[in-house]
């Protein structure tokens, strides 16, 4: 039962609860803040009147929850109240471990469906595959369940068992039913999801920043160095961030001792901090390239900003998200929490790369204020505000409507499951032939996917071929398979590999990137001029 915020809890009462919250929950950290008991009493009086006399009966917990959310709506979008499930998920993201089976799931065709099992987990060992539908858990149908509902039933104490029934697509569009009993274990979710050496260049994909990220990266780099790599590519594209300390430790792997990595400023002076590299386990014998995009945020921007400011690495891609704030998690009661923005962080050159956004995600821009210039250790100009601007900006084509619809409806994923069921001998030599494309178009008809015939442009055909290959390989080889299929066709990765081939020393790579950047600007100016003439 939800409380309509338009009724008697006024803005005044909401403000009063702020005082109550700090007094009751964070009293030991008030740092001199005095809370008025009279204001708390006023809020309590309003609350009492609502509970006793409002025309519809209200539950105390619902009223308090809505009042808390009312407070937070007046703050920035990153300050949020976490219920039990959200708090648990946050802890899993940061610690990277939980009791469960070891599968990634989503909802497909009305059922929780396995995207991929994690290697060396209970689910992997009993043979659960990508595309398997979880149709029953402990004898209860899961049709219509959300992913969260399924996860809540599948996770549990290590050593306990769970009974599930799977529906697996077989040849002839048949669905085989498989009943399995799985013993839960501690599942460690890797923050580094893929790595390999490509043309003597190390490639490492970091999906998020967790407690063990730097330790794992250190070990991966040690192994790659034994193979004689001439550089490393750190892929932070679409990495939303994670722990500030993890970003510090990752940056620390590439910087000599005594280099500032990041500093934070708080309203409370004692909470402001500076982080310096300690010079242990430094990997500084080769150039570093960091790939970023508009969804690279927070901890990703700390690493990118530190390496850019110290001229230790080249940043390639698109401008990052611009989340330059730090959230502190305060435990509230037994199983909920408050994630509150308490600090803003700055890169070594003094840049705040924070974008102010409203609750709807719209950027708040001062059109009259130009981006402020800062300087790297080597004297290169970098800019503050609005995320990290790459040294080499690479503009990528936007999705067409056809491509977007295929991805939103998970057509490639569903076809990969279907195709591997019908063609069980498919392997690493799989290519998308004309026959495969015909099967795909027939599959679209079966799925009643609507599109115009002129959607089959050359651009869309190439995209479809890559999407099919990606999901067939994901079905066969898990997450690694998806990378195996897509990296050879990744324009940004190939551009970086070409840079390593032509200009290995870091100073030459900076010159190479700057030249490419100027060339891209000139081409863009020509394109805009030509468009103006046509208009």
Question: How does this model look, in words?
Answer:
The chain is of the alpha+beta class. The chain contains 15 helices and 21 strands. It has helices spanning 11-24, 37-53, 60-73, 84-95, 122-125, 147-154, 213-226, 244-252, 299-309, 401-408, 411-422, 434-446, 458-486, 491-502, 506-534, and strands at 80-82, 97-100, 103-108, 111-117, 133-137, 140-141, 161-169, 175-183, 185-188, 192-198, 201-206, 231-235, 260-266, 273-276, 288-292, 313-317, 325-332, 336-346, 373-375, 381-383, 392-393. The strands form 6 sheets. A 6-stranded mixed β-sheet has the order 10-11-12-15-16-21, sandwiched between helices. Strands 1, 13, 14, 17 and 18 form a 5-stranded antiparallel β-sheet that branches. Strand 5 and strand 6 (140-141) form a beta hairpin. Helix 1 (11-24) crosses helix 2 (37-53) and helix 7 packs parallel to helix 8 (244-252). The chain is globular. It starts with 10 loop residues before the first helix and ends with a helix. The model is unreliable at 1-33 (pLDDT under 50).
